[in-house]
Amino acid sequence: MTLWRQAKLPPSAASQELLVLGPERLGGQGLDPEQEESGNRAILSLLTDPEVCDQVDLVLTWRAASGARCAAYEAWSRRGLVRFVRRLGRDGRLAFEVIERLGENPLARQDERALRTVEEEKAASRASGFDADDAAHRFIRAEHQSYPFAYERVAQLFDSPNAPDLVISPQDWSQGIQPGTHGALNVRQSRAPLWFAGPRVRPGHYDLAGRAIDIAPTLLAASDFPKIDGCDGTGRTSSERGVDPDVYLKRQDGRVLTEILNEHAPAASRVYIFLLDGLSHTELERRLAAEPGALPGLRRLRERAAVLASGSIVNFPSITWPSHMSIGTGAWCGHHDVVNPSYYLREKGELVSPQGQQLHTEGFVSGAVETIFEAFHRVRGPQALTASIYEPLGRGADHAVLEGRNLAERARLRLLTAELLGDCDPRWTADGQEGVARESLVDARGLAQVIELFTRPDLAAPHCVFHELTLTDGAGHDYGPHHPGLVAALDETDRRIGRVLDVIERRGLLEETLFVVTADHGMSPQDVSLRANPARHVERIGMAAVVAEPMIWLRDVAVTVERAHDGRTARVLVFENDPLASGERLPIEGAEVLVEAHAPQAESRPQRVAHGRTGAGGVFGFATPSDLSADQLAVVVRAEGRNPRRLLLDGRSLSLDLRAALYGPASR
């Protein structure tokens, strides 16, 4: 983990003589000094260009030290800027400290209790000036949102070298072309339901918010797994921290939710995770409260469950593939490295898309983390059957169809699936929602796999099942998170949950199984007329970038300027800014270099001093007027497919003053 001495912080913090923890594995993520110009230009345009500024809530980054400013995480918005650092507390835990604020701190509101009911969403929407009674337009402005665990969730992302240079958190209603979506840092898109039911659980309602990374360690603790010498959220093993083994996984960012457990009760023999993809926490709670006869399958679990009133706050970005990996590993995406459904590998110059690929994606998950399937095999042995049911996380699972491992008997699967098609609601086809209909079929096939695995006479019952139920996500996207279509999808999903419980009960395993009900993200309604994808704005204004919403990887050059001692010659060296895996930056041949003299007289026009292209090794040499100082000579570098660089011959960047441009001259 990258360290900075706390001496770079204000005196109140410096006096504590603690360490600031930067990104764990630097590999080009965030903004380095070579990207001051392009980064500031992109942020300014995203927050001020009329084409897109109303769609952007936050622009987030980590910025390396530059001049007098120390390295820090940054959240830029039109209402203000906050810069903060992550440090190691005296108790060995991570802590966060704000070191600069201009205007309003856009991450100040981090109340995990905010907006956890439909009525609270309506009140916030009404206060935001929208029609709160129209579920399709129940939008909520940033000033009425909350950003739970925001500092931690932003900082963790930039621990991975796969992380972008900039990431956008859009306004609540400004992303995509579907009636519902997710991905933002705000609480509505980041909260998922979270219940635990079964052995060692204290049933009841808890005024508590968990994090997605807390689920796996809580399950393993309730299953009486041994603690190991693994890494905690600081990235250090127990032995490196000078303590006894104190985590349950190879990398454990989360904590055990001890509040809901009875450590003296019998342990769970098996675990079963129901992941209702994309299910709105508030819609689920509304159904349960308003319709006592609805959702009998879920109610069977809820009546003996520990229910977290504030649910689970998921990974950032609050998107399917990264969030699933976090639930199943107990590690944030900055540590399991699947940072987005699609992301750019700088060292290869390649955009990869696990979510687009869908099949055989387990290799994208970092070997530095451990999946719950791997943990079960480590503790219970290879005979402990584990199953990933259409779950994006499959590494280590014995049965994982998406990874090409299918233990089920295929002929029986076909028969079971045909029988289970009766659970599929005909409205999907009647409404012309073919995507939702396909997801309904996938869930039927997944249920067939579960029934087959639990009823096969030649197989021991699974010890660990991670079951993805995707229909609620499809309906939430294509109808909206509070539409009658989502109500129907939840009813259909509940029928499948009831069937699973019946199968496990008939096998005599219900009482020894610990169940989890959760989701991978929340969902909010969208203004589909916008067809918004604010991250692509940087491409539309002509900047060189790789964009995979909501992330931006800027394509930049690294420039070094050197002037001879006698002042008569100089040279410019131009390299790729994104390093290879070895850390080497490749030279760029053919980059255009323009050098101009700027005399002290205000009325004088710049005079061309040199113009040419870099040769082999990325070098351009030229003569300079010895009577002009280095700060009077400006260099412009342009390379095809890269953002231009403008700097003085003394090395200082000519980038715009972003603070002054956004918040006025007094903010310099």
Outline of this structure?
By secondary structure, the chain is α+β, with helices and mostly antiparallel strands. Helices cover 25% and strands 22% of the residues.
Question: How would you describe what is shown here?
Answer:
- It is a single chain.
- 25% of the residues lie in helices and 22% in strands.
- The strands form seven sheets. Strands 1, 2, 3, 4, 5, 6, 7, 23 and 24 form a nine-stranded antiparallel beta sheet that branches. An eight-stranded mixed beta sheet has the order 11-14-10-21-13-20-18-19, with helices on both faces. A four-stranded antiparallel beta sheet has the order 28-27-30-31, with no helix packed on it.
- It folds into three domains: 3-111 and 146-176 and 527-554, no CATH class; 188-524, Alkaline Phosphatase, subunit A (3-Layer(aba) Sandwich); 557-667, Immunoglobulin-like, CATH 2.60.40.
- Residues 3-16 have low confidence and may be disordered.
- It contains 19 helices and 31 strands.
- Strand 16 and strand 17 (350-352) form a beta hairpin.
- The chain starts with a strand and ends in a 5-residue tail after the last helix.
- The protein is of the alpha+beta class and 668 residues long.
